[in-house]
Design a protein that fits this description.
alpha/beta, nine-stranded mixed sheet, two-stranded antiparallel ribbon, 11 strands, 35% helix, globular
């Protein structure tokens, strides 16, 4: 009996047992998986509170002033005893600092600078809803200093595999269990300091670290997790100030 073998079509791949599959089918399946993940998870936030941050990273204030923060706030914070911020109606926002700029190569510096520029926009945009943003220190104003200490982009391939493949999901679970950070996601560490703009009196400070969640946008935009954390912090600072002045319409991020 004469056996015949169907010839593979153009664009197909030969399998180990002599069969073949269409490349386009594989590519389509991959695309469907990614699109499905995006549609299902797009509502998720892009960052979450990390389990810990090294106090040695403190740059703006002496780390000895910090105390552990609440579960829904920064990992470490300081608040001046008896603080009354109702006296302030303005805020001066410094250009965002990049703490380890001297250690960065050209490509890293460009990414960090983009984050710093975005952070300034987020801060002034959020705080401008409640305070007059001034261009220099003046009476009746607070001064906000914000620094990016460390930031890391997501790793798209590792992130995708740990989201869709059984082995990857297992490895991702182990990684998260050990570190509190999902596999392949980005992260960022930042510090905030608020002072009286004229006297320099320290009113409050916070040191925090946030890591990416498994939002699939981080697969496409590798700095999404870090940037989303910056947006979160801008909203959180506004929320904390609103709460401290006894506002009734404070919006928790």
């Amino acid at each position: 009996m004469l056996l015949t073998r169907r010839m593979p079509q153009k664009g197909s791949q030969i399998t180990e047992n002599g069969g073949f599959v269409m490349k386009s089918s594989v590519q389509t399946l991959t695309l469907v998986v990614v699109v499905t993940l995006v549609s299902v998870l797009a509502g998720c936030g892009g960052s979450m509170r990390a389990r810990n941050v090294d106090l040695k990273n403190a740059f703006l204030v002496n780390p000895s002033v910090y105390k552990e923060g609440p579960s829904d706030g920064a990992l470490y914070r300081y608040k001046k005893p008896g603080l009354d911020i109702k006296q302030y109606s303005k805020i001066f926002v410094d250009p965002v600092l990049i703490v380890k700029e001297a250690e960065l190569d050209e490509g890293q510096r460009a990414n960090y600078q983009k984050l710093a520029n975005n952070a300034y926009i987020y801060l002034t945009s959020e705080l401008g809803n409640d305070y007059e943003i001034v261009k220099k220190p003046e009476a009746g104003a607070m001064r906000l200093q914000f620094s990016i200490i460390e930031a890391d982009s997501s790793k798209p391939v590792r992130n995708l595999l740990s989201s869709v493949s059984p082995i990857g999901i297992g490895v991702g679970a182990v990684t998260y269990g050990a570190t509190g950070k999902p596999s392949g996601v980005g992260e960022i560490t930042a510090e905030m300091k608020v002072t009286d703009a004229m006297s320099g009196d320290l009113l409050g400070a916070a040191l925090d670290r946030r890591v990416g969640d498994k939002n699939p946008v981080g697969i496409i935009d590798t700095w999404y997790n870090a940037d989303e954390a910056l947006q979160y912090w801008a909203k959180q600072i506004r929320f904390v100030l609103c709460r401290e002045r006894g506002g009734s319409d404070c919006v928790k991020p």
